[in-house]
Structure formats: C-alpha cells, structure tokens
Specification:
Structural class: alpha+beta
Largest sheet: 5 strands, mixed
Shape: globular
Helix content: 10-25%
Strand content: 35-45%
CATH topology: Trna Endonuclease, Chain: A, domain 1
Number of strands: 5
Number of domains: 1
Strand order of the largest sheet: 1-2-3-4-5
CATH class: Alpha Beta
Radius of gyration: 15 Å
Length: about 120
C-alpha cells in the first residue's frame, strides 16, 4: 500500500493466512511489527470503514497476529495494530491511517494473559 510505504513502512506480507486466520498487511515500521487491517467502504454508504473494526474483528486480528508471530519467531519484537480506512466513490479513493488503532489485551478477552513479554 503506497500510503504506508510513503510513511516509511516496509511491507513484509500481504493477505497472510494460516487456516481461517488472515492478516491484510504485516509491515515493519522501524523496529516495530505492525499488523494493518484495511477496511474499504463506499463514500455514500451507511457505515464507515472504522465501524467494521468490532471487538470480534479485533479478536480475530489478534489471533492471526499471534499465529504470524509464532510462525516467524518474532515473540521478542514490539508490535502494534493499525487500521487503514478507505472510502471510495467509484472514481477516487480517500485513505486514512490510524496508528495504534486498538490494543491486543482487551481483544484477547477475559482470563487470558498477555501474549508478549513486555
């Protein structure tokens, strides 16, 4: 995604999958691994792209991030969750990037311990 690359991000993976888990983008921002959820909606639509980042979606993205970290032995790397919201009207696109859009702890639900050592 040009928006992220122009901000200095390096894309590590696009549409990464493991079973039913999926990550839209996995990027590197300096030393931080960034899991980016991309949501697109019509500009005239009833909901915004951000409306789709529900607690259930956050849990799924968090689980997918855990799987990516395990697959890449990246447990000691700092990470965060960003969201890119894209609105389009058929001809043009408008994208906004939200850093630290949500935290992994609430997404894991009650009774779970933090999954990273920091």
């Amino acid at each position: 995604m040009d928006l992220l690359e122009q901000s200095g991000f390096r894309v590590l993976a696009r549409n990464w999958r493991k079973g039913r888990l999926e990550l839209d983008l996995v990027c590197k921002d300096a030393d931080t691994i960034v899991f980016v959820e991309v949501k697109t909606r019509l500009a005239e639509g009833m909901s915004t792209p951000a409306d789709a980042i529900t607690p259930a979606k956050q849990r799924m993205v968090t689980r997918a991030a855990q799987a990516w970290i395990a697959a890449n032995n990246a447990w000691q790397r700092p990470c965060r969750f960003d969201v890119v919201c894209v609105l389009h009207n058929g001809k043009t696109f408008c994208a906004e990037h939200y850093r630290n859009a949500f935290d992994f702890s609430p997404a894991l639900g009650r009774g779970n311990t933090a999954w990273q050592p920091w």
